[in-house]
Amino acid sequence: MDFKRHKIVLTIVAVVVILVIIGTYFVSGVRNILITDTQTSLQKISEQGANAVQTAIIGHLDALSALSEQSALTDKHSNNEKIKILEVEASRKDFVRVAYADANGDAITNDGQTASVSGREYFKKALKGQPNISSELSDMFGNGSKIVAYAVPVSRRGKVAGVLIATARSDGHLNIMDNVAVSSDNAIYVLSRNGNVISNRTGQEDMNDFFQYISSESSKQDVANIQQDFLQNKSGKGSYSINKTEKLVGYSYIKGTDGWMFMVAVEKSKIMAQANQILLMSGILFGILIIEFIVISIYFFKLKKNSYEVQVRREQEIKYFTYTDTLTKLPNRNGIKKQTAGWLNQCRTNCQNGGAFFLDVDNFQSVNNTFGHDVGDEFLAEAAVRLTKIEGKENIIGRIGGDEFALLILNVNTVEDLERYAKHILEVFKEPFLIHGNIIQLTVSVGAILFNCNEKKSESEFDEIIGRGEFVLSEAKRLSKGSYALFNDDFGGTIDRQHKMDSELKQSIENNELICYFQPQYNSKTKTIVGFEALVRWNSATFGMISPLQFIEMAEKNGFIIELGRYVVEQTFAFAKSLEGRNLRVSFNTSPTELLQMDFTDYVIGRFNYYGLAPGSVAIEVTESCLIESFQEVAEKLQILSDHGIMVYLDDFGTGFSSLTYLKNLPIFSVKIDKSFIDEIVTDKTGRDIVDMIVLLAQKLNLEVIAEGVETAQQIQCVSNCGCNIIQGYYISKPVPSEQAKLLLDVLHK
Q1: Gap between the Cα atoms of 186 and 195, Å rounded
Q2: DSSP letter at 223?
Q3: Are 528 and 522 in contact (CB under 8 A)?
Q4: How far apart are CA 237 and CA 230, in angstroms?
Q5: Could you tell me if 251 and 237 are in contact, meaning their C-beta atoms sit under 8 angstroms apart?
Q6: Minimal CA–CA distance to 690: which of 522, 438, 521, 443?
Q7: What's the Rg (C-alpha) of the chain?
Q8: Phi, psi at 742, each rounded to 5°
Q9: What is the pLDDT of residues 466-515, one digit of tens each?
Q10: CA torsion through residues 609, 612, 614, 618, sign
Q11: 523: Cβ–Cβ under 8 A, 6 or more apart, which residues?
C-alpha cells in the first residue's frame, strides 16, 4: 500500500512538474505572441494613419493648386487684388496665413505683410514646378511658433510666374488623430526625421525631441533601430521605455513629406495584463488538472481555441480597416488596389477589355459648409449606394478618398462602350438627393480609361491606372463640371486641341466674332412675349459650333471671362435699346468672377446710363455659384444694381442649398425654375409637387416665376396648372439672332 501510495504521489508530482513546465512555456509563448501581434498591428495602423495624413496634405496642396489658377495672382495685378483672393482661402482652410510670392521670392500675405522667401527650400522647389510641404519652420511673421509651409507653383502660359504659399501650425493642422482606429489612451505622433514632434493626440506625453525624450531609459539599441528607420524613411516597429514604462510602437513614413513619420504607441504593461490574466487562469486550471486531468485538458484546449479566435477576430478587424472605407462600406484606396490585380488578370485571361471610371462630386464642399458634415457624410453614403446599382460585369466599386470614387467594369471593349457607361454615371447623379429633409442636387465629373487586355503588364500597373484616371478626371472638370472625358492613345491630341481652342477663343473675343442670341420669355396666359434672355454663341471657324458650357468654362480658366462678360452686357443693352417703348426686358447672365470685379457695378451702371435705358428694361441673372463664396459682397452689388433700375433674377432655382436664404436677403424680382424639374414634370409627381411649392412660395413673396426648358405642350399645361404662366424653352422658340428675335414679336406678341 505504501508503495502504491508512493507511486501515486510520484505520479502526481511528475504530472504537476510537467504541467508547471508546460504552463511556464505556454505563458511565455502567449506573452511573445501578444507582443509580436501588437507590434504588427501597430505598424499596420500607423500605415493607415500615414495614408490619412498624406491625404490631408494632398488635399491642402490641391486646394492651393486650384487657387493658383485665379487670374488675379499675377504680377500685373495689384497687391490689394491678390490680398483679396488670399483672404478667401485663409478663411476657409486651417491655415495661419496665405501668401503669394513672385519669381524673385518677394511675398505678400493675406494680412498685408511682406517678406522675402527666396532662400526657403519650399519656395525653390515650387519655383521648379514641384508642389511640396516644408519641414518645420519658425513663423517669420508671428512669435516664432513652429509652422509648416505648403507651396505650389503659379503657372501662366506654361511658365512658373510665382509661388502660392500657405502656412499651418505644425502642432495642430493635421486633424486626423481622432479618426485613427486605436484606443483613446494610446499615443499617436507625427514626427520629423530627427525626432521633433510635429503633431500628437491631446493627452499624450509633452515633448519636443522624441529621441532625447526616450534615450534616458531606453536601450541604446532600441533607440538606434528606430532612428535608423527614420533616417531611411522606412516603416517599422520596436519599443522604448520612459517614466519606468515600456511601450511598443509601430511607425510608417508619410509619403510626400520631408521625412515625416506616423507613430502609434501602446503601453506594454496593458498587453502583459492579458497574459497575466491567462497565467492566473492557468493556475486555477492547474489545481483542477490535479483532480481531474482529462477534464482540465479538454478545458485547456477550449481556452487555447478561444485565444486563437480572439486573435483571428482582431486580425479581421485590422484587415477591415485597412481595406474598407468605414463611411460607405466600399473598398478604400488600398482595397481597390488589392482587387484591381485580380480584375486585370481576368481581363487578360478572358481577353476582355475593361473600363476604369474615376468620378468626383462637383462643389461637394458646399454641402458640408451649408448643412454640416453629417449631411455631407450621408450624401457620400447614398452616392455609394447609387454606384453599386450600376449594372456591369465583375464591377469593382470603391472610394478613393474625400468625394472621389472609382468604378472598374469588365467587358467594356470599345470607346463607345466607355462613353456609354460614362454618360450613364452622369445620369445616375441627375436625380436630386433627399438627405434629412434637404433637397441636394450636385453633378459629378467623370474621367474614363479604356484598358486594353493586350497591354503589357507592369509592376506599378495600379498606380499607372490611378495616375491616368486622375489626369483625365482633371481634364473633365477643366472642360466643364458635370461632364466626362475619355483617356486613349490620342489624348495628347485632345490637349493640343484644347490649347488651340483657348487661343482661338481669345482672338474671337478681341475681334468681336462671338454673337449674342436671344430666347423669348412668353406669358401663356396673356399670349405675349414679356422679355428675352441673352445667350452668347461661338461658331468657331476651326472647330464649328462649341457648347457655351465648354467655352465659358474655358474663359473662366484662362482669364477671358471679363472681356466675354462685357461683350454680352454691351449686346444686351443695345438690344434692349432697340426694343424701347415695347415694355419688354432683356436679361443677361454673369459669372462669379465678373461679379467680384471691383468695377463691375460701375461698368454695368455706366453702360445702362449710356444707352439711356428705362428702369426695368434689363435684368441680371445670377446662380447660386455666384453667391456661395462672397455672399455679402455680391448682395451689396446686386442691391446697388437694383437701386439703379436693373432687375435681379435668381437662375436655376431649386437646385441649390440656400435658395430660401437668398430670397430673403437679396433684391430678387424673378425666380427661374431649373430645367431639371421641368424635364419630367409630366410623369414625375414629386417634380410637380416641387414646382407647386416653388410657385406658391414665390407668390407669397410677390415674386415673378419663369419656367425654363419648356419643350412640349404637356409641360406648358403642367406648369400652368402649378400657377406659372411665364415660360421659356424650345417649344416657344430656340435662341435666335437679334433681328429674328424682333420678328418673333410680330408672330408671338399679340
Answers
A1: 19
A2: H
A3: yes
A4: 11
A5: yes
A6: 438
A7: 33
A8: -65, -35
A9: 777 777 887 777 766 778 888 755 444 454 455 566 777 777 777 777 88
A10: negative
A11: 529, 530, 725, 726
Nearest Cα neighbor of 122 from 137, 143, 110 is 137
Residue type, 399: R
Whether 588 has a pLDDT exceeding 80, the answer reads yes
CB 522 within 8 A of CB 732: yes
Backbone torsions φ then ψ of 559, nearest 5 degrees: 85, 10
Angle in degrees, CA 675, 677, 679, rounded to 5: 65
CA 467 to chain centre: 17
d(CA 186, CA 398): 30
**Could you tell me if 157 and 173 are in contact, meaning their C-beta atoms sit under 8 angstroms apart?**
no
Between helix 548-558 and helix 461-479 the angle, nearest 10°, is 100
Cell of 479: 472642360
Cα 249 to Cα 239: distance, rounded to the nearest angstrom: 6
In the structure grid, which three cell numbers stand for residue 13, read together?
508530482
Dihedral pair phi/psi, residue 159, rounded to 5°: -125, 150
Q: What is the 3-state secondary structure (H, E, C) of 454-499?
A: CCCCCCCHHHHHHHHHHHHHHHHHHHCCCCEEEECCCHHHHHHHHH
Q: Which domains does the chain have, with CATH numbers?
A: 1-323 (3.30.450.20), 333-489 (3.30.70.270), 500-652+663-673+710-748 (3.20.20.450)
pLDDT digits 0-9 by tens, 633-669 = 888 999 999 999 999 999 888 765 556 667 778 899 9
Of 363, 359, 405, 409, the C-alpha closest to 381 is 405
Residue listed under C-alpha cell 486646394:
63
Q: 481 and 490 in contact (C-beta within 8 Å)?
A: no
Helices marked H in 666-712: 675-679, 685-700
Angle (deg, nearest 10), helices 491-510 and 548-558: 80
Q: What is the pTM of this model?
A: 0.41
Q: Which tens digit of pLDDT belongs to each residue from 66-93?
A: 888 887 777 677 788 888 888 877 776 6
DSSP per-residue codes, 563-580: HHHHHHHHHHHHHHHHTT
User: What's the pLDDT score for residue 655?
Assistant: 66
Distance CA 400, CA 406 (A): 6
Q: Where are the beta strands (DSSP E) in 227-315?
A: 236-242, 245-253, 261-267
Render pLDDT for 331-362 as a digit per residue (tens, 0 to 9): 888 888 887 777 777 777 777 777 888 888 88
Grid coordinates given for 520: 423669348
Q: What angle do CA 241, 243, 244 make, to 5 degrees?
A: 65
